[in-house]
Each structure stands twice: as C-alpha cells, then as structure tokens.
TrEMBL record:
It is found in: Plastid, Chloroplast. It holds the Pfam family Ribosomal_S11. InterPro entries: Ribosomal_uS11, Ribosomal_uS11_bac-type, Ribosomal_uS11_sf. This is Small ribosomal subunit protein uS11c. One of its GO terms (cellular component) is chloroplast. It comes from Cymbidium faberi. GO terms for molecular function: rRNA binding; structural constituent of ribosome. It comes from the Eukaryota.
Length: 138
C-alpha cells in the first residue's frame, strides 16, 4: 500500500513573502531632476540603491504638460506614496535642474509629512567649460 505524497504548496517555486516589502527604510534620499520638458523623482536608500521612482510622464502627463509644476507635484506624490506606507520618516532632498517643477516637487514632499534633514541644490555649474546652448525662447 502506497502513501499519498503531501502537497507542500500550489506553486513550485513560490516565494513566501515579497522581499521588496520586507525592506524597511527609515531614512532615504529623494532626488528631483527638473528639466524644462519633464520632472523625474527618484527615491533611494542611504547607500544609493533605488527604491522607487516616478516621472511626470509615468504619472499620466504627455507633451508640454509634462514640464508643468502640477505634473512635478503628481510625480513626487507617486514616488513617495509607497514609501510613507513602508515607514520612511526622514529624507534628504537633492534638487537638480532649471525646470518649473523644482518648487512644486519640494512642496509635495513636505506635504506628505516627511521630515527633511536638508535640501541641497546639486545643479551642475560649469567653471566656464563648454559653450552653453542658445537661450530658450518662450
């Protein structure tokens, strides 16, 4: 008489818990890259590993509307929303670029109830290097 083999799980290589959700990040770095055409918000841990990101394009804006302050605010909200639930309380903010979304993204980050240790402008400035492109016509 043969014994029936007990089933361990339904799927063969099923993971018990998602590894991404297990990682609790108390402190992180929020990078805001604001160009004239788009705003990209990337959230990393202290070591620089990307945890989440969003842009005005992934937030549902297309064309010229991607460069607006409202699109930058939506991108910042989308990038941070999951991390607040995971338990991120403190963050450092690095802002780069000349775009309109700089201030709007910073306001959206502050509104999410995160404690900011510092805000730093890391826009690259040449020490009279290459000739810059022609000024933008509005």
């Amino acid at each position: 008489m043969t014994k029936p083999i007990a089933k361990i799980g339904l799927r063969k290589n099923a993971r018990i818990g998602s590894k991404k959700n297990e990682r609790r990040i108390p402190k992180g770095v929020i990078h805001v890259q604001a160009s004239f055409n788009n705003t990209i918000v990337t959230v990393t841990d202290v070591r620089g590993r990307v945890v989440s990101w969003a842009s005005a394009g992934t937030s549902g804006f297309r064309g010229t509307r991607k460069g607006t302050p409202y699109a930058a605010q939506a991108a910042a909200f989308n990038a941070i929303r999951t991390l607040v639930d995971q338990g991120m309380q403190r963050a450092e903010v690095m802002i780069k670029g000349p775009g309109l979304g700089r201030d709007a993204a910073l306001r959206a980050i502050r509104r999410n109830g995160m404690l900011l240790s510092f805000v730093r402008d890391v826009t690259p400035m040449p020490h009279n290097g290459c000739r810059p492109p022609k000024k933008r016509r509005v």
